[in-house]
Amino acid sequence: MIKISEDNYRKILEHAEHCLPEEACGLVAGESNDSGKIIRKVYLLTNIDHTNEHFSLDPREQLAAIKDMRANGLSPLGNWHSHPESPSRPSEEDKRLAFDKKASYLILSLMDREHPVLNSFRIDGDRAENEGLIIED
Amino acid sequence: MKITVAGEKKEVAEGLTVAQLIVDEKVETPQYVTVTINDEFVDGDAFETTVLKDGDNVEFLYFMGGGQ
């Protein structure tokens, strides 16, 4: 299980909508314990691919985010990206490029603009498991 | 000599290269790792020849990407 606040969810959603038609992306950080993960901060990074079909995090922004996490005592929990035109589930490319089995991979689908869907997955090779995302007030 | 790796101070041997540090740190999927030294990005072709100095601050950045 992984929890995110409504505020942080809104930050991701607004950034992803702003970046349309391109995919948007970023990082999430917070706390992790036996009962799950809590996202305390989301990072809105530049998709240096600038397309609607792929994303790659900007390495310089990634470096700055990692330093900020460390300075604030937060643990890196994973990343997030949007699917402007497809469901909230990992694509084959998402799985192929998911190298960290412990990370959370959040995917925001905007294919139905009136009903965005955010899920979080753990990915191990070809297998993706929905880890149960809770959006809290 | 002392260097900092991903925020942790470490004692390492003089003459340590970035390539050897990647091995010593058991970096997974090293082909997808970008390295910075004191916030400067190191070209992947230079990992074997880049020698670390006392006081260097090293970060490993794991490539993150995908597509819908």
Structure description:
The complex is a heterodimer of chains A (137) and B (68). Chain A has helices at 6-19, 59-71, 92-96; strands at 2-5, 25-33, 36-45, 54-56, 75-83, 104-109, 117-124, 127-130, 133-136. Chain A has 137 residues and is α/β, with parallel strands linked by helices. Chain A has a single domain, classed as Cytidine Deaminase, domain 2 (3-Layer(aba) Sandwich), CATH 3.40.140. In chain A, strands 8-7-6-5-2-3-1-9 form an eight-stranded mixed β-sheet. The two termini of chain A are 16 Å apart. Chain B is built from one helix and six strands; from the N terminus they run E-E-H-E-E-E-E. In chain B, a hairpin with a 2-residue loop joins strand 3 and strand 4 (40-42). The longest helix of chain B is centred in the N-terminal third of the chain and has 7 residues, at 18-24. Chain B is mainly beta and 68 residues long. Chain B has a single domain (2-62), classed as Beta-grasp domain (Ubiquitin-like (UB roll)), CATH 3.10.20. The chains are: A alpha/beta (137), B mainly beta (68). At the A-B interface, strand 4, helix 2 and strand 5 of A face strand 5 and strand 6 of B. Strand 4 of chain A pairs antiparallel with strand 6 of chain B, so a sheet runs across the interface.
